[in-house]
Write a structure and sequence with these properties.
Radius of gyration: 15 Å
Largest sheet: 4 strands, mixed
Order of helices and strands: EEEEEHE
Shape: globular
Strand order of the largest sheet: 5-4-3-6
Number of helices: 1
Strand content: 25-35%
C-alpha cells in the first residue's frame, strides 16, 4: 500500500460501551486486545474504559473477530496443551 504525499490516513475507530458506567465511546485499534481461543467462551476482546478505568472483557464472535483483525487490533492466539 502506498500513500500519496499530502494525504493522511485516518485511524480506524471502533464503537464500544462500558457495562459498568454505561458510557459509550470510540477506541482506536491500539486500545483494544483480541484473544482467539479454541471455543466461543475463550474468544474475546478487551479494553479499559476511558471514563471509569474498568477492565472490560466481551465475547467475540466470528464477525467481531473479522472486523477487529481487519482494523489492526493486536491479536493473541490462545493455545491449549494436551
Amino acid at each position: 500500500m502506498s500513500v500519496m504525499p499530502g494525504l493522511s490516513v485516518s485511524p480506524v475507530l471502533f464503537k464500544a460501551a462500558c457495562p459498568d458506567c454505561r458510557c459509550r465511546f470510540e477506541l482506536t485499534a491500539g486500545a483494544l486486545r483480541l484473544a482467539i481461543g479454541a471455543s466461543r467462551r475463550t474468544t474475546f476482546y478487551s479494553f479499559t474504559c476511558p471514563e471509569c478505568g474498568s477492565a472490560v472483557r466481551k465475547p467475540a464472535g466470528e464477525r467481531i473477530v473479522e472486523l477487529l483483525t481487519g482494523g489492526g487490533v493486536r491479536t493473541l492466539r490462545l493455545h491449549t496443551t494436551a
